[in-house]
Amino acid sequence: MSAGVLSALALLAALAVSGGLFARRALLLVRLVQMGKPSGIERADAVPDRLRQEATVVLGQRKLFQKLVPGLMHAFIFWGFLALFPTIVIAMIGIVDREATIPWLGEQGWFALLVDVFAVLVLIGIGIALWIRKVVRPSRFEGSHLGEADLILAWITGIVVTLLLWHAARIALSLNEYGAAWSPVANLLSGLFGDGDVTEALERVLVWAHVLLILGFLAYLPRSKHLHIFTAAINVYFGRTRARGRLEPLRFDEDLPEEEMRFGIGTVEDLTWKQMVDSMSCTECGRCQEVCPAWATGKTLSPKLLIMGVRDHLFAEGPLALAARASGEAYDGPLVAASSDLEEMAWDCVTCGACVRECPVNIEHVDHILDLRRHLVMVESRFPGEAEPMLRDVERQSNPWGKPQSERAAWAEGLGVRVLAPGDAVPEVLYWVGCAASFDERARTTAQSTAKLMQAAGVDFAILGPREACNGDPARRMGNEYVFQAYAEQNVATLNEAGVRKIVASCPHCFNTLANEYPDFGGAYEVVHHTEMLAELVREGRLSPAASEQTITYHDSCYLARHNDVLAPPRELAAAVGKPIEMERSGKRTFCCGAGGAHMWMEENARPINEERVREAAATGAETLAVACPFCTVMLDDGVQSTGGSMRVADVATLLAEAIETDG
Amino acid sequence: MVLAYVEHAAGELDELSLQALTLARGYAGGELLDAVMIGPGAADAAPALGEYGVTTVHVAQIEGSFAPQGYARAVAELTGRLSPAAVVAAGSDRGNEILAHAAVMTGGVLAANCVRATPGDAAEVTRVRWGGSLLEEARVHGAVKLLTVAPHAVAIETAAAGAAAVETFTPELRDEDLVARISERVDTSTGGLSLAEAPVVVSGGRGVGSSEGFGVLEELAGLLGGVVGCSRAVTSAGWRPHTDQVGQTGTKISPELYIPCGISGATQHMAGCKGAKKILAINADPDAAILASADYAVVGDLSEIVPAITAELRKVREA
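YS: structure for the whole thing
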């Protein structure tokens, strides 16, 4: 038997072992994902949008570049591997016949140059990665598998170094099909080798080492946190394409087949396939952890640790559930929430979505958290006790503070605001006031200002008064989907019956629910936030504020900026009435006030988020902290008081109303 | 005749049920008034219902702890047997729950939280809606009419009558009737006067300044036979434990007198003290929201005003 045939047989054996190990693991992962429950939102539509995500987020590494240096590190390695991919085949061919290569491509000088350049970029990337991990040591890696990461970096280094040295040996032996000058690095390294028997042998050793490292990597990958190489592109493709603030509705209809019925995440069998792919896509980079307000203030929650917890649970319990199904038995395993600290983590979340925005592979952490809450609330009836009055008051009194519904329009007394009675002519705009602006002393000012401004600009508007009920958001974010859906149906019926087409909402939470979530319940309206409407009125010259000298820093509400892209209108208003200064974390990278995810009605068990945010605002030196959300108003005003500050907290609508009054 | 469901705690008659009995007796208007009682101690307490005008008490034998659907089954069975003009119970959590189940079982119509009821083919009722902010006039149609009586809307009246007759019966329960039942009771009382039940609560907010600042509040509360509460800002600052917190996310209180000192009156706080009969607010800020909700207000420094009240109280007591 010739050496070539022997080598070919040995290569086939190595391929079989590696491929077999890979396939065995991959099959398990596929079967797990197949077991996953359907996702409540459409994930196969909008193909052009999804392809664009694939092009920008995966190929373009868009979200990785949200941090420049780590982004370059990853892009070098990722693009390097795409460019170097054909060299795997070339090396395998080289094992069988060292004189052969991929026809045409292997002989191209430009390809040799490409390989050389990208091999060096990969090594630079690894250098940056080591510098980040060993010197900078950012806190985002806390809790990640650091040793595993080192092993993977070493492995990749081995693959690239053996490739370069193999090429160098080939140049030394004049086996290169291209001009050596095309391959400057390998050419330089070829000086290490002679042209005798030792190099002949080394050439064989290097090509084998290169191929075996790759095949070993292939078998190891699906068992490691580096699994994202295969899953990330899939996860990005099926990620949300729009309405990031929208939650997946649960279906309670009786005709739903039982295997599709779920009340959030109970056991591993309740995970949706997307949640499973999410957990398999996490590389533990910790960018989510770094931006999480709960983690930043010493709570248990880290979105990264949460997703890792879901993954650990999936890999521990998933195979047992599969085995039970295969033998026709019912799987009766532990709750996902019972694993590690997941239950506590689920309650720490403010649903601000910073984690989702940062995640380079589009993991949707908030959906996991809400599904954990849903099961705990609706099935286990286990949730922070202090939120119970809120849930009860929302359910019975249709507002979270248990105020009488008959007082809902009390804020508008003496303002001459039209209250829409059944059968009345539909106004151009329906003003959806929301519970906070209807009942809370501090938030009422916003509603009064907005109403006065709309009157001054001659907008034809009306309110629903006592017919407006809580939109259900506090109950929904707390996990009580059932109560939320009852309100969604009730409010949609009221709005549809009144013939409402355009709504202006004063609360970003109402705004998000009305605009993104009510369409799931048959309510399709044009919904704008009051800052959008007021900015338009200023632009059109229907309101002419007089700018003052006061310095204003605007705090973006998560549900306006991050979830719904409303960034410019409130800033236009701030600029129209004073001198704006930006905070360090602003726009879509805003930092939560601490009230989201029903935390307005829960106690905090570590450092307060609102104080953290207020300190950041105070650092700008601004006199006024402008907001556009009633909950931000209350949280930040409390924060100013508890930190002993002197900043004034006011809604941009109130600032605008004052600027108009001084004008006229 | 009219049938009333009467609640009791191990034989001790429930006050709300006696109010309901009074309304039921008026509704019966001289016709027979029967009652149904269930649970340990029912048979012992039953004869005493004669005092409230009940002729016969039907005691249903159901083993074990409270099971809403099981109790409702007994009420429904009796309703089928006796065909009363109406079934009446207290508008308590339990009364509403049992009558709601019984309404479904009998195909009847339930009007909850009534304050007044006049019999007829269509009974005319006035009932409380929207958390007490609205009174609704309604007509109740249907062969079986079930009413619950809003708490504290009807004054208890006794009738000059002897002991009631007691008849026991064993209702035919279905398996599903006992699925939901009380499995465990956890006592929440920690001894002493609880914040939720105290007749007087003196609370401090951020305006108190420190945990030591609560000394004057403790003194005043002690003198008035009350307890000390606080706002969320205080527990956040670590001056008092969370168990002392009055508010939406703390304890909801309903004292005869509430004295918030240095508390601005945020919505989350007011949601916890809206049950207070009278509010005396002490605050240095004349624009504080709490002053709008208070029955009496003193604008000034609480560290001067609270000790002054205490001193005045001592003087009055000693005199």
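YS: worth flagging: The longest strand of chain A covers residues 429-432.
IM: good catch. Also DSSP finds 27 helices and eight strands in chain A.
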